[in-house]
């Protein structure tokens, strides 16, 4: 017998804990486990970085690829898995002390959050197309239920909308997988990548469009993302933090990974991905200008950043891809902070509408101060990580002598400055401070420091990564290399089979 | 008559017929999804699309003359049998589809209880 | 008079329906031309064929079962998870405490007619047969068509019939929850044992002896029937819980 640090733990451990949840209810350890399991997995992931740097870990399940399912843990996947575990740990720590949201405590939310983590990890790790579909549905269904978990009218409407649109995405992706199997007889991603070129070009196009519709809906890209603000508006901000920080990132990674791996002609893939990214960026930022509700505004801002990340990934170039990974991390940190601040505000105010929040900065200086830090990080102001990540992306484009994305990113940053400063100005406006205090003071006592600890940790990490990006530079460059090196991946997977 | 049956049994004809049938179902589902307003009808359309994909896979993955991949009734070797992988995948897909459908219907029932509406347009303008 | 009866043109010809029909027809034609004209023929060498030739290794007479439970057992674990999630979500939606006003409204809405004598007697006869049939299907999953999913649903249907025939019959949610928990974690634990034991060293590896000679017998194929039995219990408990939740909500 031996204990192996295999990637299977990232999926099996949350599943095991979720399945045996009645036991944890009886022993009263739900909160501890919800924090402890992702934290343990985060430590495992951090411990694996050195191993994975040398060679990707490939975990075969029952039978070696291309016949069976395998998990593929390379630097890119490991980076995302560590990020997901971190996001869930942080949200769990936040929920532990936030006793006001009773619907987020108890057995069912415990199960849903852990399985969301398992689904996200599985999406990133799996090396098999149908298994990818299964994890897409696991992550999807836990997200639908988490959206509706408050069980009032807006939450149910958001959950239904999410379920319908998400299932459509699932059907389209399933059809793409079915056509791939019918045409190549393979399901393993590496084997499909080898065989895909032999399919007639028209079929290749059909399969690519179907998969793009499916994954585009899931990763909230422009023509398919009309539903996102409603869902973010209807669900709880603490849950939305997970959607923006974990779920979308997982689907975005899958989209780019499949495009690199399966689509042979990088030129065509580049045009498609960069166009989608640029459109998503501009449309979302322009829409965000007009939002008067904090969750909607944050949703559109999140969409814009997704577009920016896709634009940088879609260039399929090592330097911009490293910047894209950096921005992905930085955006997760900032959006976790912003959505958790929104959750904190919602515990005290009745509405997150712009008018209702006038002068809130004078009543809750710390909470609103944290909002400002998060907003500045998204904008990309110097001491924060958002500045460095955007700088890396811009440098990558400049080094490749491609200038239109640079102009686009700068214009987008200007628009971002426009709406975030509008919010900051209103939050600190002297006017109707009395209205804010009236609705709250009776509602709850001031939060303890334990509530703020996760938020302050986020701020600390933003500062650390902004001042000393070299801490993670090696990991980012490795991740970019692993994501873009198609031949290495195919060889490392099918080489195992040849043993 | 027999010639007609033989002609129908040819793999290309058989697969073509299955293809036309299942894709028609898929498009009917898509039409319902876009054109209908009642939540239950929309969920039914979704189920229809899923079933169409399942049907397409099962129908195209077998050719006439292959037996079920099970050793029984005197068969002793795994030869001349249908590909087992599509059947296993579709089993998974059916269960997933059922789970999503059950959840969707439950959400629709709860929503109907709270809002006395089962119209998709009521969802669309669920503003602040 | 005639003025009032005249329906405007845009109402008589439903533009939206027409456009949608045209769009659907165009998509269908596009799909069909692509798939009929451009698709390659069904390839001769697929993953499934390779698995079929190696299937004797699992000593399971039913190749679909060895693919579902062993070769692609990880998918099945995910599938069970999806069902578990749906059951959890439905339980969350329907079993939460309701405000009094909502409760009374729901109850006045539905006063089910009492089941008639035919129903009661018929179900009394059918119930044991159905349960036995379900258990048979679960346990013979590696020998004949069937398995945990099919058998589990048959068992759950037997309990659904009981619910229909006897308004006072209730499935105990706590007990169902424990059944789900035991079978689900049993599945993961069996997988982890396969990972930890050095003889198999893969997740869901078949660590019990499974000699090919015993192919076709009830005790064969090692861990496969065990896992399928757990799947059967889990599916039965979950689908039963879904039925119970929906019935309480109705």
Automatic annotation (TrEMBL), chain A:
Pfam families: Proton_antipo_M. It is found in: Cell membrane; Membrane. It comes from the Bacteria. Keywords: Cell membrane, Membrane, Transmembrane, Transmembrane helix. The chain crosses the membrane at residues 6-25, 32-55, 75-97, 109-126, 132-150, 162-182, 202-227, 239-264, 270-289, 298-316, 328-350, 362-382, 402-421, 449-472. Residues 127-415 form the NADH:quinone oxidoreductase/Mrp antiporter transmembrane domain. It is a multi-pass membrane protein. GO terms for cellular component: plasma membrane. Belongs to the CPA3 antiporters (TC 2.A.63) subunit D family. PANTHER family: NA(+)_H(+) ANTIPORTER SUBUNIT D1, NADH DEHYDROGENASE. This is Multicomponent Na+:H+ antiporter subunit D. It comes from Allochromatium warmingii (Chromatium warmingii).
UniProtKB/TrEMBL annotation, chain B:
It comes from Allochromatium warmingii. The chain crosses the membrane at residues 12-34, 46-65, 85-109. The keyword Transmembrane helix applies. It comes from the Bacteria. It is a multi-pass membrane protein. This is Multicomponent Na+:H+ antiporter subunit C. Belongs to the CPA3 antiporters (TC 2.A.63) subunit C family. It is found in: Cell membrane. Keywords: Cell membrane, Membrane, Transmembrane, Transmembrane helix. One of its GO terms (cellular component) is plasma membrane. The keyword tRNA processing does not apply. Pfam families: Oxidored_q2. InterPro entries: CPA3_antiporter_subunitC (IPR050601), NUOK/Mnh_C1-like (IPR039428). Its main location: membrane.
From TrEMBL, chain C:
Keywords: Cell membrane, Membrane, Transmembrane, Transmembrane helix. Residues 119-239 form the Na+/H+ antiporter MnhB subunit-related protein domain. The chain crosses the membrane at residues 76-94, 125-143, 149-165, 177-198, 218-237. The keyword Membrane applies. It comes from the Bacteria. It is a multi-pass membrane protein. GO terms for cellular component: plasma membrane. Residues 44-102 form the MrpA C-terminal/MbhE domain. It is found in: Cell membrane. Pfam families: MbhE, MnhB. Belongs to the CPA3 antiporters (TC 2.A.63) subunit B family. This is Multicomponent Na+:H+ antiporter subunit B. It comes from Allochromatium warmingii (Chromatium warmingii). The lineage of its organism: Bacteria, Pseudomonadati, Pseudomonadota, Gammaproteobacteria, Chromatiales.
């Amino acid at each position: 017998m031996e204990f192996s640090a295999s990637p299977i733990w990232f999926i099996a451990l949350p599943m095991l804990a979720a399945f045996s949840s009645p036991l944890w209810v009886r022993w009263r350890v739900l909160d501890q486990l919800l924090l402890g399991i992702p934290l343990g997995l985060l430590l495992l992931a951090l411990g694996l970085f050195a191993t994975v740097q040398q060679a990707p870990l490939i975990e075969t399940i029952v039978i070696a690829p291309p016949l069976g399912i395998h998990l593929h843990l390379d630097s890119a996947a490991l980076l995302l898995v560590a990020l997901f575990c971190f996001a869930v740990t942080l949200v769990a720590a936040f929920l532990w002390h936030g006793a006001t949201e009773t619907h987020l405590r108890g057995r069912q939310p415990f199960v849903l959050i852990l399985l969301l983590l398992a689904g996200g990890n599985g999406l990133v790790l799996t090396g098999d197309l149908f298994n990818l579909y299964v994890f897409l549905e696991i992550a999807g269904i836990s997200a639908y239920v988490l959206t509706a978990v408050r069980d009032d009218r807006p939450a149910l409407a958001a959950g239904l909308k999410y379920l319908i649109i998400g299932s459509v995405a699932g059907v389209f992706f399933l059809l793409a997988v079915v056509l791939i199997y019918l045409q190549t007889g393979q399901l393993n991603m590496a084997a499909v990548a080898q065989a895909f070129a032999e399919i007639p070009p028209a079929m290749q196009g059909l399969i690519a469009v179907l998969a793009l519709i499916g994954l585009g809906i899931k990763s909230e890209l422009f023509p398919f993302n009309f539903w996102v603000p409603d869902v973010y508006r209807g669900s709880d901000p603490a849950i939305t933090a997970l959607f923006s920080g974990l779920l979308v990132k997982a689907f975005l990674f899958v989209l780019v990974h499949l495009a690199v791996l399966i689509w042979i002609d990088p030129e065509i893939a580049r045009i498609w991905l960069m166009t989608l990214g640029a459109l998503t960026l501009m449309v979302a930022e322009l829409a965000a200008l007009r939002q008067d509700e904090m969750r909607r505004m944050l949703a559109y801002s999140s969409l814009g950043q997704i577009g920016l990340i896709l634009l940088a990934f879609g260039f399929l170039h090592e330097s911009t891809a490293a910047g894209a990974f950096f921005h992905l991390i930085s955006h997760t940190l900032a959006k976790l902070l912003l959505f958790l601040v929104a959750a904190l505000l919602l515990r005290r105010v009745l509405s997150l509408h712009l008018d209702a929040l006038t002068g809130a900065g004078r009543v809750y200086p710390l909470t609103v101060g944290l909002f400002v830090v998060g907003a500045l990080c998204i904008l990309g102001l110097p001491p924060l990580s958002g500045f460095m990540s955007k700088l890396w992306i811009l440098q990558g484009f400049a080094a490749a002598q491609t200038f239109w994305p640079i102009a686009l990113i700068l214009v987008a940053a200007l628009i971002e400055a426009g709406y975030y400063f509008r919010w900051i100005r209103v939050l600190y406006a002297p006017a109707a401070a009395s209205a804010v205090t009236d609705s709250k003071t009776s509602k709850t006592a001031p939060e303890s420091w334990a509530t703020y600890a996760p938020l302050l940790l986020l701020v600390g990490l933003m500062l650390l990564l902004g001042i000393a990006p070299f801490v993670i530079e090696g990991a980012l460059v490795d991740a970019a290399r692993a994501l873009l090196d198609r031949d290495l991946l195919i060889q490392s997977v099918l080489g195992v089979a040849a043993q | 008559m027999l010639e007609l049956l033989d002609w129908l049994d040819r793999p290309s004809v058989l697969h073509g017929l299955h293809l036309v049938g299942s894709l028609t179902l898929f498009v009917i589902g898509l039409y319902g999804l876009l054109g209908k307003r009642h939540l239950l009808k929309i969920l039914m359309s979704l189920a229809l699309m899923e079933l169409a994909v399942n049907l397409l896979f099962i129908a195209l993955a077998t050719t006439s003359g292959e037996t079920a991949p099970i050793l029984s009734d005197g068969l002793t070797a795994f030869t001349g049998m249908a590909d087992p992988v599509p059947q296993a995948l579709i089993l998974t897909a059916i269960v997933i589809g059922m789970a999503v459908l059950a959840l969707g219907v439950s959400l629709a029932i709860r929503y109907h209880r709270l809002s006395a509406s089962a119209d998709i347009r009521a969802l669309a303008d669920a503003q602040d | 008079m005639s003025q009032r009866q005249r329906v405007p043109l845009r109402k008589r010809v439903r533009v939206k329906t027409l456009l949608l029909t045209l769009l659907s027809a165009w998509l269908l034609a596009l799909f069909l031309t692509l798939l009929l004209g451009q698709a390659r023929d069904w390839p001769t060498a697929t993953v499934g064929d390779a698995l079929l030739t190696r299937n004797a290794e699992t000593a399971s007479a039913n190749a679909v079962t060895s693919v579902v439970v062993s070769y692609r057992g990880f998918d099945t674990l995910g599938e069970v998870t999806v069902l578990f999630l749906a059951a959890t979500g439905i339980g969350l939606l329907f079993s939460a405490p309701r405000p009094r006003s909502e409760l009374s409204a729901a109850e006045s809405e539905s006063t089910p007619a009492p089941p008639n004598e035919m129903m009661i007697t018929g179900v009394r006869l059918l119930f044991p047969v159905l349960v036995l049939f379900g258990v048979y299907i679960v346990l013979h999953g590696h020998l004949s068509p069937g398995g945990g999913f099919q058998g589990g649903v048959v068992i759950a249907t037997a309990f659904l019939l009981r619910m229909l025939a006897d308004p006072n019959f209730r499935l105990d949610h706590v007990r169902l929850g424990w059944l789900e928990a035991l079978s689900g974690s049993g599945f993961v634990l069996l997988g982890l044992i396969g990972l930890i034991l050095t003889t198999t060293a893969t997740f869901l590896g078949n660590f019990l002896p499974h000699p090919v000679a015993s192919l076709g017998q009830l005790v064969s194929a090692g861990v496969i029937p065990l896992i399928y039995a757990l799947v059967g219990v889990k599916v039965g408990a979950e689908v039963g819980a879904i039925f119970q939740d929906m019935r309480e909500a109705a």
